[in-house]
Amino acid sequence: MKILVAVKRVVDAKIKVRPLPDHSGVDTKIAKMAMNPFDEIAVEEAVELREAGKADEVVAVTVGPLKAVDTLRVAMAIGADRSIHVKTDDALEPLAVAKVLKVLVEREQPGLVLLGKQAIDDDANQTGQMLSALCDMPLGTFASDIGFEDGRWIVTRETDGGTQTVSLASPAVVTADLRLAEPRYVTLPSMAKARKKPVETIELASLGLDTASRIRVLSVDEPPARKAGVMVASVDELVEKLKNEAHVL
Ligand code: AMP
User: Fold this and answer.
1) Of 79, 93, 100, 241, which alpha carbon lies 20 to 30 A from 126's?
2) Residue ranges per domain, the chain?
3) Residue with the nearest Cα to atom 14 of ligand 1?
């Protein structure tokens, strides 16, 4: 059985991004890029499932520009067996990415499609849900554990109040939360090995999909600067300020 893992190239989580002067988006020209952190977790989990004998092959897929191949190489250094790069210079919205992934699901027939719960650039948290709807496949979001028993995926989901465990018919779509796995350290020898693994390139235009934007970004802005705090001398003063200044009591 095959596991398909979707990985997105995003601005490195450690970099502080700035809006462009015209507020049309975020300035990514000089920013360091990396694999979306939740996707790294998803790749690690897929590789661990293969190592545990629950799958035979892990295929990493990305939709993005030529440089997104770097992200696929990292996925293969973690342990993915091969990759598919759907090439486009357009920044696609979750619905468009889900349509592309659907084509790959139909072609590759995986038993499990793993995605990150969200991409840290758009924070959309939509692609997995949309893919599951488009493919009519069961969905487990915010996974913190994945097992495979009697042909079904047993997924523990992180919820506000604790966890929920669901049993999904295979094939299924699952999105990775923070505690699902701890990505292994990518070593130089594993990167060298990854360079020899196959990457198939597909031009987005050749798929004949409608990937036009449905969303218009009106403005991208910095969050308002936080006001300086004040020291209070007593609990009484704190309560007075919460009542009369902050109006929260
Ligand atoms: P989002 O819905 O944008 O928050 O993204 C959720 C997940 O969908 C990500 O963590 C990735 O696993 C996957 N994804 C989103 N965009 C792409 C892309 N361009 N290429 C590959 N996977 C993607």
Assistant:
1) 79
2) 2-221
3) 8
Q: Are 185 and 77 in contact (CB under 8 A)?
A: no
208: left (phi over 0), alpha (psi -120 to 50) or beta: left
Per DSSP (E only), the strands in 46-138 are 57-64, 82-87, 112-116
In short, whether 142's Cβ falls inside 6 Å of ligand 1 is: no
Distance from the alpha carbon of residue 75 to the mean position of ligand 1, in angstroms = 14
The reported pTM is 0.92
**CB hemisphere CA count around 112 (13 angstroms):** 32
pLDDT (tens, 9 = 90+) of the chain, 249 residues, equals 999 999 999 999 888 888 999 999 888 877 899 999 999 999 999 999 999 999 999 999 999 999 999 999 999 999 999 999 999 999 999 999 999 999 999 999 999 999 999 999 999 999 999 999 999 999 999 999 999 999 999 999 999 999 999 999 999 999 999 999 999 999 999 999 999 999 999 999 999 999 999 999 999 999 888 888 889 999 999 999 999 998 998
Cβ of residue 130 lying under 6 Å from some atom of ligand 1 = no
CA of 119 to the centre of ligand 1 (A): 6
CATH class of 2-221: alpha beta
